[in-house]
Design brief:
The chain is α/β, with parallel strands linked by helices. The protein is built from 17 helices and 12 strands. It has helices spanning 3-24, 36-39, 51-64, 83-95, 102-105, 107-123, 137-152, 156-159, 176-183, 204-216, 239-248, 286-290, 304-311, 341-375, 400-409, 437-453, 455-461; strands at 73-74, 130-132, 165-170, 191-194, 220-227, 252-257, 281-285, 297-301, 380-382, 390-395, 414-420, 423-429. It has a 7-stranded mixed β-sheet with strand order 2-8-7-6-5-3-4, sandwiched between helices. Strands 1-11-12-10-9 form a 5-stranded mixed β-sheet. The longest helix is centred in the C-terminal third of the chain and has 35 residues, at 341-375. The radius of gyration is 24 Å and the shape is globular. The termini are far apart. Bound molecules: pyridoxal-5'-phosphate. Residues 77, 136-138, 174, 176, 227, 229, 231, 256, 258-259, 285, 295, 297 line the site of pyridoxal-5'-phosphate (PLP).
């Protein structure tokens, strides 16, 4: 047998270990960071390691690694396991293409383009649209900002930014906006954080006031970032209202749908991003709501010329055959690029767009289950609004940060906390569409039992 055949057998054996472990210990035993290197042997040595020892070491690592696919992981904006997407990703690893040229990626180029074309159709972007697969949602936002900057200040690409460009995003938007402003040469001080309403949605009236004030002071409004699914509350900014302002003042509108942009696949939920067809760019992370393995982020651009203007460089050593439409390196940030499309395509192909819709709808159903439970239980306080898959709450006035830490330390559940308008709370994210209603109810039961049985721990931290 060849090395790869042997190692795939080993892989299967290790997968069995992992799946068993996920059943037995859905929350992995936490290793404190300060004793990590003493607990598992992670050291790299001069000598080779015997295969049998390597296998044991890999098992130790698998067992100790946090489990993100189980029904007790609610910590971040991803989770669960869509097995057809895993299959596609495993094949992408074996194939190991780089997505920059048709010469080395062949049909994988068509697979990526089909996802982009279909997504553009769904949001109503028209014939001139296209897109690419950046490394994640932060990079998608960055690429959008660069295109906006170049559209507003085309000379800037050669001479550096010379005007006082400003950008606009809500207080509740993702932190990548601040970093991106610095990378793109606008500067962090030129990010205007627009107030949100009581449910976390950008106030378009405040946006317009700020733009007017900036123009009066000689600034050049360049980029508006609207969010479809804010990081804490999962709120949707009013895109249609914001689009009117973007058009009126000729400012690029990007819709950051990293978290919840996948509502485009749901007939009953896509009204939440009504007006997206009027935006200049839109991004979504299939590794969040769709449940593909990390990372799978897509940015769509209404006019593909903007992508080319900002990201294409001639490189004869690279682009030796085929046209621009097949040489995807001409619209990407990096040179060598991982194939993130195959996993999404394998899933989409197997379940159809209707299957994607079910995946999306399930998360809203689970969120409703959680919200109903919390709202009807006197020991809980709810800080969450309809149409959000982040269900924020507190239990018995226990400090949420302490409770989350205790739940994790005692292998009860992995869940995070957040804050909105100075209130801290636990944030349950119902993004794992393989969960069922009972999983959500079990989560609450697990908290209640834990608190009941561990009064001493809770009091100790109060
Ligand atoms: C997750 C998220 C991002 C960042 O995406 P990454 O893929 O983690 O870089 C950006 N914006 C929003 C709203 C997000 O939820």
């Amino acid at each position: 047998m060849s090395d790869i055949q042997n190692d795939l057998l080993l892989f299967n054996e290790l997968v069995q270990v992992l799946l068993e472990e996920e059943k037995k210990h859905p929350v992995a035993k936490r290793i404190d960071a300060d004793v990590l290197y003493d607990t598992i042997d992670l050291s790299l040595k001069d000598e080779a390691m015997l295969d049998v020892s390597l296998k044991e070491t890999l098992k130790d690592v698998l067992v100790a690694t946090p489990k993100t696919a189980t029904n007790l992981f609610f910590n971040q904006l991803f989770g669960g396991r869509q097995s057809k997407a895993v299959l596609g990703d495993l094949l992408a690893v074996l194939l190991n293409n780089s997505m920059y040229t048709y010469k080395v990626a062949g049909p994988q180029v068509g697979i990526e383009q089909e996802i982009i074309r279909k997504s553009c159709d769904i949001i109503g972007y028209g014939d001139k649209s296209n897109g690419t697969f950046p490394t994640g949602g932060s990079m998608s936002n960055y690429m959008a900002l660069i295109m906006a900057r170049d559209a507003k200040d085309p000379e800037g690409r050669y001479r550096g930014v010379t005007q006082n460009l400003t950008m606009y995003t809500s207080k509740e938007s993702h932190y990548s906006n601040a970093k991106n402003a610095s990378f793109a040469g606008l500067g962090r001080n030129n990010v205007r954080y627009i107030e949100a309403d009581t449910e976390g949605r950008m106030l378009s009236k405040k946006l317009e006031e700020q733009i007017i004030a900036d123009i009066e002071e000689g600034y050049v409004p360049t980029f508006i970032n609207a969010t479809a699914g804010t990081t804490v509350l999962g709120a949707f900014d009013p895109i249609e209202e914001i689009a009117v302002i973007s058009e009126k003042y000729n400012v690029w509108l990007h819709v950051d749908g990293a978290y919840c942009g996948s509502v485009i696949f749901s007939e009953s939920k896509k009204h939440l991003i009504k007006g997206v067809d009027k935006s200049d760019s839109f991004s979504y992370n299939a590794h969040k709501m769709i449940g593909t393995p990390l990372t799978c982020s897509i940015i769509l651009v209404k006019d593909k010329k903007q992508l080319h203007d900002s990201f294409s460089n001639e490189a004869d050593y690279l682009y030796q055959t085929d046209g621009d439409d097949f040489n995807l390196g001409k619209t990407s940030f990096q040179c060598g690029r991982r194939n993130d499309a195959l996993k999404f395509w394998t899933l989409w192909k197997s379940v159809g767009t209707q299957g994607l819709e079910k995946i999306v709808n399930q998360q809203f159903d689970l969120a409703n289950t959680a919200r109903d439970y919390v709202a009807n239980h006197p020991d809980y306080t709810l800080y969450s609004y309809p149409d959000a898959i982040s269900v924020c709450f507190n239990y018995k006035n226990i400090d949420p940060k302490e409770l989350c830490t205790l739940l994790y330390q005692h292998q009860v559940a992995v869940v995070g906390f957040g804050a909105f308008n100075e209130t801290n709370f636990i944030r349950l994210v119902t993004i794992n569409a393989t969960n069922i209603k009972e999983d959500i109810l079990n989560f609450f039961k697990a908290i209640e039992v834990f608190v009941d049985e561990n009064q001493n721990l809770i009091e100790a931290v109060d």
